[in-house]
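Below is a concrete protein record.
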Amino acid sequence: MKVLRVLLILNVLMVFTLVIKPFFRDGDLSSYSVVPEDYRMFFPPNASVFPKRPPHNLIREFEVRNKSIIIEPRRPVGVVLDNDHYYLCSEDGYLLFSIGNKEYLKAYPIFLEVFLNGTKFSRKSLEVLERIRPLLEEPIVSVVFFESKRLVLLKGITIDLASWRDAVENVRVLKEKFPELKPGGRYLLTSEGVLVEMK
């Protein structure tokens, strides 16, 4: 029994040392350090040379340094609805992966009326995404209509906009007035930062 326990402990230590530890660099879990022999875990096994660009949208950049491969992941900012499928998308307009777990819908705003070019945003939709980036940091934003220039906040509050600049420049107004807005109400945000109720 004692021998089995010792063997189990040695096995766990070996797995940690050989498999888990090489993935993390300086305790930082946001980037990974992978020894070249493990490189095939992230790239196709039939690749004879390292590709010059990342093979998956989850990876923004990678760099070979000190016999290791440093991988920088993309940061998700929202969820795109396309053909009845939800996709987590990054701040630079790439679709990262299809979402099966609806918990993501609580954590990120939903993007509607987005035009895609394969697995990335079209130039027009990417321009909107770059303009509204300050809005995406606010937890009150629930849905963004890219073409209609409309926001849906928590409590089902709809904000119509003349331009995205009005929302970005007046994001403080939205945060301050949010508790006073009627649930399910519809408002127009002017360039001066005034919220006009629409009936």
